[in-house]
Design brief:
The radius of gyration is 24 Å and the shape is elongated. The chain has a 5-stranded parallel beta sheet with strand order 4-3-5-6-9, sandwiched between helices. Strands 1-2 form a two-stranded antiparallel ribbon. It is built from 9 helices and 9 strands. The protein has helices at about 5-10, 10-40, 75, 115-135, 155-165, 190-205, 215-220, 250-270, 280-295, and strands at about 50-60, 85-90, 95-100, 140, 180-185, 210-215, 230, 240, 270-275. By secondary structure, it is of the alpha/beta class. α2 packs across α4 and α4 (about 115-135) packs across α9.
């Protein structure tokens, strides 16, 4: 039964509160699902490594004039006519921000899908948090947490999500710094010019973004015919089509054009763009995200110079 305060609240606020409670109820199960996916996809990712101050030996390399003599390895240099420096390895935690769209459109689930877009987005975000935390990387959620490094990072983010009010429809990008990575997961169904306007903030900062578009198969194929009523989940506006099949060709053209423009924007900035359909395994997107983060330098299979 609704509380008195809720009865007095505007309908929009009551709906937002209901969505927040629904999300809170889902989070524990989604965390379990995220960990299951992580265990089947990879054994863990390695933190970025580069030359610097540390305890682990990396390599010997020839001495260059001007470097500190104290760094010369005299034992190795005595083996031949060259003077060698002993480099050590610095393991630097990398900050990766995670964000999933929690707006009303993400609740959609057609009969063709195995899960809602919101559940898939949260599973992907929590799975990424689990993988990153296992490897000692710093993670954060814009507007929800500051960057932190902890083995239970996914659990901590899940707790914040379960106890937070409805987050804003778009992430708070004010705290994102240059050279960070950010993983953005949503349906990206807003007018593409609106989406690109806030992505421009990241591009200007020099942030590497990884976009994962979560799509219900019905949204892409438009399998409707006959008299059909469509409702905008954000505004509540309704559209009744007498013969829905007559709209299919134009709809699909606009839908794909939006995606192609977003993907092209990502390519121009050397970002990654992935589509994950909710009738397909979440693990497919997680594998692509791993590859994209590795290629972008967020993680390295080997070692890099500072």
């Amino acid at each position: 039964m609704p509380r008195i305060g809720e009865l007095q609240a505007p309908a929009e606020a009551r709906e937002a509160l209901g969505r927040a409670r629904q999300r809170a109820a889902l989070v524990p199960d989604l965390l379990i699902e995220a960990r299951r996916i992580v265990n089947t996809v990879a054994s863990g990712w390695h933190g970025r490594r580069k030359r610097g101050i540390g305890e682990n030996f990396w390599q010997f390399r020839p001495y260059v004039d001007g470097e500190s003599v104290s760094r010369i390895d005299w034992r190795r240099s005595a083996r031949d006519d060259h003077t060698y420096i002993r480099d050590r390895e610095w393991e630097a935690a990398h900050t990766v921000w995670l964000w999933a769209d929690m707006s009303a459109s993400m609740l959609y689930q057609s009969t063709l899908a195995t899960t809602s877009k919101q559940s898939r987005a949260l599973v992907l975000a929590l799975a990424a948090a689990e993988l990153l935390s296992r490897s000692g990387e710093r993670i954060g959620w814009p507007g929800l947490t500051d960057p932190f490094s902890a083995r239970n990072g996914a659990e901590r983010i899940a707790s914040h999500l379960a106890h937070s009010a409805m987050p804003p429809e778009r992430p708070d990008l004010s705290g994102i710094r240059r050279f960070c990575d950010i993983v953005l997961i949503g349906d990206f169904l807003d007018p593409v010019e609106d989406t690109l306007s806030w992505l421009d903030l990241l591009a200007r900062k020099g942030v590497r973004a990884h976009l994962i578009e979560v799509a219900d198969p019905a949204e892409e194929t438009f399998p409707y015919s006959g008299r059909t009523e469509f409702t905008d989940p954000e505004s509540g506006d309704k559209l009744t089509a007498g013969r829905a099949e007559m709209l299919a060709a134009d709809y699909r053209k606009l839908y794909i054009a939006r995606r192609e423009e977003l993907a092209a924007y990502a390519r121009r900035h050397d970002w990654s763009f992935t589509v994950n359909h909710t009738d397909r395994p979440a693990s497919e997107a997680l594998v692509r995200l791993h590859a994209a983060l590795t290629a972008a330098g967020g993680f390295s299979a080997g070692r890099q110079w500072a």
